[in-house]
Design a protein that fits this description.
It contains 4 helices and 3 strands. The protein has 109 residues and is α+β, with helices and mostly antiparallel strands. The chain starts with a helix and ends with a helix.
Length: 109
């Protein structure tokens, strides 16, 4: 498991930060001001949430003039996807084995 996944999931565990990431995934790069409507919180609160997301490696920040522009880091999404796919394969295999066992049990009757 990539070492930053626990901090990634911890950061995404907050509803406001999750909403920020969803908005960035849907809209692409946005300034902090364009993210103010994701929740009824102040601009400084949005900035604090963005800082947590940056520190967790989920979003990147660049400065353009007076604005700070944020975007989701593709590497962070890829790490989450890779982790999820590992467990999806596990559960798919487990469910296939269960179905085979049930079919065998029914055919033995």
């Amino acid at each position: 498991m990539p070492s930053n996944l626990p901090s990634t999931f911890a950061a995404l565990g907050d509803t406001i930060r999750f909403a920020i990431v969803e908005r960035l995934l849907e809209s692409g790069e946005l300034s902090a001001g364009e993210l103010l409507d994701v929740a009824e919180v102040s601009a400084p609160a949005i900035s604090r949430h963005l800082k947590v997301l940056r520190e967790a490696g989920i979003v990147s920040q660049k400065v353009v003039g007076q604005k700070r522009i944020y975007a989701v880091r593709p590497v962070a999404v890829a790490e989450i996807n890779d982790w999820m796919m590992t467990y999806q394969e596990f559960w798919a295999g487990s469910l296939d084995r269960l179905a085979a066992a049930l079919e065998k049990d029914l055919s033995d009757d």
